[in-house]
Amino acid sequence: MDSAPNASRPESDDEIELLLRYLQLARDALLWKLEGVGEYDVRRPLTATGSNLLGIVKHVASTEYGYLTECLGRDGGISTPWMAEDAPANADMWATASESRADIIALYRRVWASDDAVVRELGLEAVGVVPWWSESSVTVRRLIIHMIAETHRHAGHADILREQIDGAAGMRAAAMNLPAGDAEWWRDYSRRVESAARAAAEAAGETVGQPVAE
After folding, report:
1. Mean pLDDT, to the nearest integer, of 25-47?
2. Could you tell me where the beta strands, DSSP code E, fall in 67-203?
3. Do the beta carbons of residue 139 and residue 124 sit within 8 Å?
4. pLDDT at residue number 171
5. How far is CA 199 from CA 18, 183, 204, 213, 214, in A?
6. Residue 33 in this model has a pLDDT that exceeds 70
7. How far is residue 70 CA from its own chain's centroid?
8. What is the CA radius of gyration of the chain?
């Protein structure tokens, strides 16, 4: 693995900072989904596969550290024992009672510092090894783009989970990206979506049950 810094870096520092900016937007959006949620709601499973808000943050923090520090041959001094080969399945996807919200958020922020420093040190053309990928080596550029995609994906998951808890929704605090409708507007909108779905199902010869209660 050649993860040495590239002294002749053909890419500009602007590209590195642009990619890190988009990654940070995703990180901030994900953490925002924890704000104002009680201890039970931030941890409880909200899908049949156990998806939960704090577990998503724990998972993303651990995964990002793996890709952007460990796979690049660096050690940021961060321990993620739930990612070990002998750890129980899905141990990174939920928080135990002894793992506090503050500790997991602090872990994530330490990961940010470690990963950003490694990316800036090595440059985008440096290569690392991802043992669970088929390629023999991958560039820093590809790894950071992978983490941008993964973090935004999980921020979307968290958005849906949060809406199930208390109805709160939005892309991020500074850009909600939602129509400015009141509660009645959203109820009417939901009815229109439901009506269209039922009409399409009827046209396809499907039988549907009662709509989800408002």
Report:
1. 97
2. 127-128, 138-139
3. yes
4. 84
5. 45, 25, 9, 19, 19
6. yes
7. 19
8. 21
